[in-house]
Write a structure and sequence with these properties.
The chain contains 9 helices and 5 strands; from the N terminus they run E-H-H-E-H-H-E-H-E-H-E-H-H-H. By secondary structure, it is α/β, with parallel strands linked by helices.
Length: 161
C-alpha cells in the first residue's frame, strides 16, 4: 500500500457515524482526511451531534485544498466528491473511501486505491473489530443507506457469512 493519507467521502462517514463506529476509521487507517465540503455536508444534518462526534474522533481531520480550483475538473460530481478526489491528488492518498459510482470511476481512472463503506466493514471483520458484516450491513439499511442486493450478497460472500 502507498504512503500518504486516507481520504474519506461523506457517505461512508455518515454510514459509520450512524453505526456509532467512527472508531473503525482510526483503528484501521490512523489519520483520515476530509475536505471542507465533506465536513459541511456531514454537519448539515444534526450539526451539534455530528460536530461532537467529529470532536471525539481526533483521527478525522478537515483539510483545505491547496488549489481549490482543482476540484472543478471533476464534472458530474457534487462538491464533496470533487474535493475528495482533488485532495487525494494533492496529498498522494494511499486510499480513497467513497461509495458514489461516478466518484469511484474517477478515483479508479486516477489509479488511487479505493474502497467503500462495505469494504471498511469487511476489513474491520478481517481484523476482528466487528463480528458480522451482515449484521452491520443490515443496520446500515435500517438507517436508510441504500445498498443494492448484489453489493449485499457480495459482502456476505467475501465475509464468509
Amino acid at each position: 500500500m502507498r504512503d500518504g493519507p486516507v481520504v474519506l467521502n461523506n457517505t461512508p462517514l455518515v454510514a459509520l457515524w450512524s453505526l456509532g463506529r467512527l472508531d473503525l476509521l482510526g483503528t484501521l487507517f490512523g489519520e483520515i482526511l476530509i475536505p471542507r465540503a465533506v465536513y459541511d455536508e456531514f454537519v448539515a444534518t444534526a450539526p451539534d451531534e455530528r460536530e461532537r462526534s467529529l470532536s471525539g474522533a481526533p483521527w478525522i481531520r478537515v483539510e483545505a485544498l491547496v488549489e481549490p480550483r482543482r476540484a472543478l475538473a471533476y464534472t458530474g460530481l457534487d462538491r464533496g466528491e470533487a474535493e475528495v478526489i482533488a485532495l487525494a491528488e494533492e496529498r498522494g492518498a494511499r486510499l480513497v473511501v467513497a461509495d458514489d459510482k461516478r466518484a469511484r470511476r474517477y478515483v479508479e481512472r486516477l489509479g488511487f486505491p479505493l474502497t467503500g463503506t462495505v469494504g471498511v466493514l469487511l476489513l474491520a471483520k478481517q481484523t476482528g473489530l466487528i463480528a458480522s458484516v451482515t449484521a452491520e450491513v443490515a443496520r446500515l439499511q435500517e438507517a436508510g443507506l441504500h445498498l443494492g442486493p448484489a453489493v449485499v450478497a457480495k459482502a456476505k460472500e467475501l465475509a464468509g457469512e
